[in-house]
Design a protein that fits this description.
Strand content: 5-15%
Strand order of the largest sheet: 1-2
Number of strands: 4
Shape: elongated
Mean pLDDT: 79
Distance between the termini: 19 Å
């Protein structure tokens, strides 16, 4: 679903001065910049977790995926349905030792995640730069 950027809709004329409300446009830009930042964070976490999984076990790495949920405005990183045993590797069981690749990746890279988020959200000041960062593509990971 491609949604175009809303124009300033409300125009108020008072004593010859015209005010244009860009609230809808700003809300759209903020929402889409946040989603784009979450998408890149999801990609980063999945790539790092895949490397860690391959290094330790070699299994389940291709089934790591991220989801950026539009309605809730959040990021979920986990395993695809084909990666059934990924949860067992992540949390551990009686017979399977805990690997915790996703947890450790996020814990070890908090500064990088903040830098990625900051790069997008600092673009709020420049509208053209913000619009170039927003990608209208798919918001579901590999």
């Amino acid at each position: 679903m491609i949604v175009s950027i809303p124009n300033g809709i409300v125009k108020i004329k008072k004593d010859g001065v015209e005010f244009t409300s860009n609230v809808d446009r700003v809300n759209y830009t903020l929402r889409e910049l946040t989603r784009a930042a979450l998408r890149d964070v999801g990609r980063f976490i999945c790539n790092r977790a895949r490397k860690q999984i391959k290094r330790r076990t070699g299994r389940v790495a291709k089934n790591t995926q991220y989801w950026v949920r539009k309605k809730d405005g959040d990021l979920q990183v986990g395993f695809k349905p084909g990666g059934f045993y990924g949860g067992f590797q992540e949390l551990g069981t009686e017979k399977q030792p805990k690997i915790g690749a996703l947890y450790n990746t996020v814990k070890d890279n908090i500064k990088t995640i903040r830098d990625i988020e900051g790069a997008y959200l600092s673009a709020i000041e420049d509208e053209q730069h913000a619009l170039s960062l927003i990608d209208e593509g798919e918001y579901q990971g590999e």
